[in-house]
Amino acid sequence: MTYGYIRVSTDKQTVENQRFEIIKYARRRKLKIDYWIEETISGTIDPCKRNLGKLLNHVQSGDVIICSELSRLGRSMFMIMSILNRLMEMNVAVYTVKEGYRLGQDLQSKVLAFAFSISAEIERNLIVERTTEALKRRRAQGVILGRPKGRKNTKYKLSDKKEEILKFMDDGCTKAFLIEYYGISSATLYSFFKREGIKY
Predict the structure, then answer these.
(1) How confident is the model at residue 13 (pLDDT cuts 50, 70, 90)?
(2) pTM for the complete prediction?
(3) Which residues are catalytic?
(4) 138 contacts 145 by C-beta, under 8 angstroms
(5) pLDDT tens across 53-88, in order?
(6) How far does CA 169 lie from the centroid of its chain?
(7) DSSP state of 151
(8) What is the average per-residue pLDDT within 7-15?
(9) Fewer CB within 10 Å: C terminus or N terminus of the chain?
(10) Pairwise CA distance, residues 196 & 175, whole Å
């Protein structure tokens, strides 16, 4: 089976551009798209909570997934690498239109997967380093992280931090990072997500 996978982040974006690119790509290579999987959701969301997760559980050895580019699979290198590794172990090929990748069981694919794993490790280390430096800098500036003891809320926690938090999420930062960075509890973070309608 050959699957066309399309993901856009918001309902303001259209799936038609990606569909057109994939159709042209398939025709050039004499491939027929058997099924389309489309979704409007952030790439930071865990694959198992997306239609992509259903696809990963459904594909079989010899199948092909075509997407416009690897970033459609996820927003972080670590997530993309994990998905590609899983598919290669299942002998499922991934073709991308823009990058021109044809990832399968050949040597080139395994070398590329290794490169992805190295990149993912570097990315994780950089995030940790940026987090540590940011916390040190804030403490050096005399910023007290979290709410001082005994002080009651006069407004919702994180109410003025939405744009900053969304940027952190786009950079692949984890919920644990956000909790540490803002000195809050996990309950506070989840309440913020719910209140702002953020899926993470």
Answers:
(1) low
(2) 0.58
(3) 9
(4) yes
(5) 999 999 999 999 999 998 899 877 778 888 888 898
(6) 9
(7) P
(8) 75
(9) N
(10) 15
